[in-house]
Write a structure and sequence with these properties.
Aspartate Aminotransferase, domain 2, eight-stranded mixed beta sheet, 14 strands, globular
């Protein structure tokens, strides 16, 4: 598997490669079929469909998958309910279609969309709800799906961080009308760039193929169902190169091992930082009983922004990379221009100001984890003495 990090520096993230990536890239280059929907794309699609039990379309990014989902579900003037604590692509995809993101607050425990606030945000213009499974921990999907069914709106799961994570045994991305995955370099399973659209409702399948192929029925042409393909709808080039799929296939084949190691490292963090949480100066991640996460992110929520920054700088000083996360979309310039807020954003604003993500990836050892734990422990103990 991956080489170990240099001892004196702990990188925040590093892809965990197997020995097959170069082999498959050579095969792809040797075959000369580098464009989209080549043999490696087909093999990845079959692999994912077997795991997820749904139709899967490989895309060049999760952003592309979200854009396709937006094309399938909304039009200009519609509204889409989503958390503000997410990456810009979640909102951008719908704004590009002329829809308005309606931002609501997140839960304090999981940092996911607060399902108890969704109903109040629904209007006659609402056409979709977008739960974002933060850190690979599932949103509470049953109440979200119930609200969607009651109001006749689609659910688009942003499971960018959720590959190989589950809610009550069901893979993330397979419970809504549509789901999206990311295989970006920052994720657990990577292809550099890359993503997937999961089609859980067969009603979307025909048009999804057209959107993905620049608005043409080219897929039908290659299947021998039409004599020539032509422009039928809006669309874009959302296919990944088969080179990307070659790397992804190598990753998918060892995904369970990569995930198992991340979960071991995550568990070591969680155990080692339990005393810090009991001190009251920070809070560890919370995983509901129904959720099985994938070890994507280990974060801490500190008692204050000042303490978070003390920890971040203390870690950086000894060569440990640790980062904050999103600037809430509702407070960003584009968020104020294109979206609107429904209710208070108290938890979102506080988490954005006090959260710190710790390094976690397959190149780390338990010794690296212990180094981070010890550094964080020194910060909170110094803080406890200050406030005593």
């Amino acid at each position: 598997m991956a080489q170990q990090c240099v001892v004196d520096k702990v990188l925040f993230n590093r892809p965990d490669f197997s020995h097959r990536e170069l082999q498959y890239l050579r095969e792809c280059l040797g075959g000369g079929d580098l464009a989209g929907d080549g043999s490696f794309t087909g093999r990845c699609r079959s692999w994912l469909e077997g795991q997820l039990g749904a139709t899967v379309l490989l895309t060049h990014s999760c952003t592309a998958a979200l854009e396709m989902a937006a094309m399938l579900t909304v039009k200009a003037g519609d509204e889409v309910i989503m958390p503000s604590f997410t990456f810009v692509s979640t909102a951008n995809a719908f704004v590009l279609r002329g829809a308005t993101p309606v931002f609501i607050d997140i839960r304090r425990d999981t940092l996911n969309i607060d399902e108890n606030l969704i109903e109040a945000a629904v209007t006659e213009r609402t056409r979709a709800i977008v739960p974002v499974h933060y850190a690979g921990v599932s949103c509470a999907m049953e109440p979200i799906m119930a609200i969607a069914t009651k109001n006749g709106v689609a659910v688009v799961e942003d499971a960018a961080q959720g590959y190989l994570a589950h809610w009550k045994g069901r893979p993330l991305g397979t419970m809504g009308s549509l789901g999206t995955l990311s295989f970006h370099q920052s994720k657990n399973i990577v292809s550099g760039e890359g993503g997937a659209l999961i089609l859980n409702d067969s009603a979307f399948e025909g048009r999804a193929h057209i959107l993905r192929e620049k608005g043409t029925n080219r897929t039908e042409f290659f299947r021998g169902k039409v004599d020539k393909y032509e422009w039928l709808d809006i669309g874009s080039s959302y296919l990944p190169s088969d080179l990307i799929a070659a790397v992804l296939l190598a990753q998918l084949e060892v995904a369970n091992e990569i995930t198992a190691k991340r979960l071991r490292l995550w568990a070591r963090y969680h155990q080692g930082l339990s005393e810090a949480e009991r001190s009251g100066v920070l809070r560890r991640p919370v995983t509901p009983e129904e959720a099985h996460h994938n070890g994507h992110i280990y974060y801490l929520v500190f008692d204050s922004n000042k303490l978070r920054e003390q920890a971040r700088l203390a870690l950086l000083k000894i060569g440990i990379e640790a980062y904050t996360h999103y600037v809430p979309l509702h407070s960003a310039p584009a968020g104020r221009r294109y979206g609107r807020v429904a209710g208070q954003m108290t938890v979102t604003d506080r988490v954005a100001a006090t959260m710190l993500r710790l390094p976690i990836h397959g190149s780390m050892t338990e010794e690296h984890i212990d180094k981070v734990i010890n550094a964080v422990t020194q910060v909170w103990r110094a803080s406890a003495r200050t406030y005593a």
